[in-house]
Amino acid sequence: MIHLEPVTVDNFAAVIGLEVCEEQKNLVLSNAISLAQAYVQPECVPTAIYDGDMLVGFLMYCIDRDDGEYWMYRLMIDQKFQRRGFARAATQRMIETIKKDTSRHQIFLGVDRENTPAAELYLSLGFRFNGQVFGKERIMVLAY
User: Fold this and answer.
1) Phi and psi based region of residue 131 (left: phi greater than 0; alpha: psi -120 to 50; beta: remaining)
2) Is 57 helix (H, G, I), strand (E, B) or coil?
């Protein structure tokens, strides 16, 4: 069963060691950079993605300081565990967690124009393109 856990001193090195496929490295920042971002932006929630007791990926979300809305900043599944439904399950867990905060009713994310598989995943989970573009990323939103 997929679950999200905090990044701690006990799993820090393993989270840093997760890697995407070579052709995906230009689509997602390293987990080390994400954890550094979480250090200087305490509103970020970095999580380790586990399948039972096996670490399979990393996900980070936050309430964005610019617009006050929830954003999924990062999602990556280690290359050894891709195409097994872990990204979908982890995103669903994040959505469930965020929905507990009834003061907000949207989740945003940016998806690289070249990352068609990610866009298809998010569309299947109810996210929709909202017409905004930031750099190479098209913005998607899930209203709930």
Assistant:
1) left
2) strand
Q: Which residues of 84-113 are buried (b: 16+ CB within 10 A; e: fewer)?
A: eebbebbbebbbeebeeeeeeeebbbbbbe
In this prediction, residue 29 has a pLDDT band, given cuts at 50, 70 and 90, of: confident
- Longest CA span, the chain: 41
pTM: 0.94
Q: Which amino acid is at 89?
A: A
Q: Whole-number mean pLDDT of the chain?
A: 96
